[in-house]
Amino acid sequence: MFELKFNQDLCYHCNTQACLTKCKFMDIDNATAKNEILKIVRGEDSFVLHECVTCYACEEYCPYGNHPFYLIVERQEALGITPQPLPLVKRAINIGIPFRGEPEINEINGPVINLGAFSQLKNKIQGKLFDGLSIISSDERKMFHYFCQLMYLHYGKISLIKERLPNVISTITKHKPAEVICFHDECYGAYTLFCNAYGISVPFRPVHLFEYLFSRLIKLRDLIKPINIKVAYQRPCSSRLCPDKHLYVNRIFELIGAVLVKRQFSDENALCCGLTIQGQKKEGSRKRALEIQRKNIEDIEMAGAEVCVFNCPACFDTLSIKLKERNIIPTFMSDLCRISIGEISFNDIKMSG
Amino acid sequence: MDSIYNALCDIVDKEYCSNLPEEIYIYSYDLGTAEPKKPDYVVSPRTVEEIQKIVLLARDKNIPLVPLGGGLSLAGLAIPQKGGIVIDLKRMDSIIEVNERARYAVIECGVSQGQLISYLKKHHPNLTHSEPGAPPAATVAGNIIIHGQGDLAHPYGFSSDMVLGLEVVLPSGDIIRIGSCALGSGWFTIHPLPDIGLFLGWCGTTGIITKLSIKLFPAKKIRGTGTFVVEDEELIPEIIYKITHTQIPEDIIVYSRAIPPFAKGLHHITVNLAADSEKELEFKQELIWDDTLGEYIKNDLGGYLGFTKELERPQISKTSDYKKGGGFEYVGGIMPIDTYPQCYIRGREISEKHDIPYTVTARIIGLAHSMMFAWTYAFNRADEETIKKAREALYETDELVIELGGVIWKPGIYGQRLVMDRLHPGTKNLMKKIKTIIDPLGIMNPGNWELL
Questions:
Q1: What CA–CA distance (Å, rounded) separates A321 from B426?
Q2: What was the pLDDT predicted at B450?
Q3: Which chain B residues in 400-429 lie under 8 Å from chain A, judged by CB atoms?
Q4: Taking the domain A217-352, which CATH number applies?
Q5: pTM (2 decimals)?
Q6: Is 60 exceeded by the pLDDT of residue A156?
Q7: CATH of B95-218, one of 3.40.190.10, 3.40.50.300, 3.30.420.40, 3.30.465.10
Q8: How far does the CA of residue B145 sit from the closest CA of chain A (Å)?
């Protein structure tokens, strides 16, 4: 089984304890943080293992890239501490089981876009931005063969990821892709940083969707007309796994003339959408999730955003109705980019959002 | 020339009457596993007077008469077992009255679920009816006649409990009315006159219901569905008891199924909540998810999956995709809630025995007074072997319902025989007498509820 590349000396000698002191969901001072992270390193129980809302953010906070979040999940699993109640854990485990036969493998020998477990969102990869790309995982019945499995970080089931992910990588590899643009940044995080942390071999080149969109927009620059729409960005937990790609949000917005509103809860300070939190075992989790969502959406509204842009379909599903109730239009980044090159109108995203 | 055909054409115009093989073929089967039987004629009247004339013709010629609504019972209840005339009632589709303040609707028997939903949404957005989750083409009357249940079954019971008045054409050709409408008053109550419970649950064997009045209920501004997941089936009766104690939900459904895998071995309890404000909604959510079910979450026995501001209809029909060929049929049992664990375990066993992915669904009726537990079996319409397996599974399930102390809901012929074999002799005798008096020639939907 694959082992986490974790350097415990970095934690022993760390003076920041940023992994825990920066946590937005636990109030921890430096001394406590040091004590608790070292307990976790030693494999002992810690209140952190019970309180963690699994927002992934400590992966970004760690100044050494030492994977504190993966370690937390490893320890949760080893000590039998599941953040979610067991029936939801079982349900989640079952979700990732492919059940409608084997996928059709066609050799592509070119760039592909992988929809992962979101085949139903094919309409989000239309038009000139995606010209020349082949799609894999376009069939909803077969999409779990392409499911990156990282969702199990929310369920204290890292062993399941290690067990299933190599098969998923193998399936994608059979398509012989030149490079794989990942529709969801959780997939990108899986095939890059996660696999690297566990020494899992990835024989193809993963590309983050936003990096891809940025490069396509550069090529289509002549078509771009500034959209002048005030936008907010809902940063998903999975973005914390590949924080180096987060800068493409700003780059894209600048390129298409979207006005990114100034918010309290953005970038490193972003709030979780609440989907995972609402079902957690800890007492009051449902209300806690509602409160986080309220703060998040009020922040978006007060900043004057007309549109809230998503990368994660789960965040989109969780927040879109609440946003619409406040006349804020939820949309995906690709659709926003398509407005800038004149393929769709602002009204179109208003209707489809 | 065919004199019966000509007589029917005289009543309804030949455009609405047929004895052509390609047209009567359509009326020879339903979407379930029942063996097809061809009628001799199909007729589609538009008025109660036309229906009356057709009944008189059938009586005079001693021809079987099978009333048909949407034809979606799946149990073969409108398959003409002994040929004769199928009387297709879909043209009887007027919504005659909606009384906003007294919350009732008077409709003709061919009004479809989709039609009534759409009409209320457009003209009476504050009102709704108990919608069964059937295809939109299913008729409102059909659901009521078979004692169906809709998405307000938890607070208000069976759809047939919501009837406020009936107009019926008897096998004699007489037209009768039941309820306040019988006094020429409005159609607002079925009580307090002497009870004439002769037409609901009889599958059209005692007469043809032509008009009916049904209760409508407040349609709150926000209606949505929350889901709670449990692994241990033994907990379901207790959890349902606790949820229904709150008297808050509009609808409670429990399902488990082999496909998709997320639902396998787990029980999803969906709870519909309605509110006119966020404040009201959160009050209700807190009572259900936190106060009532919080202990199960804390003890790792159940999990809250979230709440969506959209109504999720039970979609048993999705099961039809499990095997190629798109067929499915289910046995519904009206069961005591306490039997849930046995219904689930035994249902899985029957499914596995017949190589069919299991699908079970329970809808709570009343304050946990009973549930409609549905065992669904998929089959390939083009594969006789899978149809045979599904049919065997259905028969075994009919017997299971009886064994577990339940009552088979909308039983097909096989299930009807099981029920009649066990029926209290006095009850059976009275039913025979009623049938003999009302339909002495036995022309109404023969083959169904045959007690003689």
A1: 57
A2: 85
A3: none
A4: 3.40.50
A5: 0.95
A6: yes
A7: 3.30.465.10
A8: 38
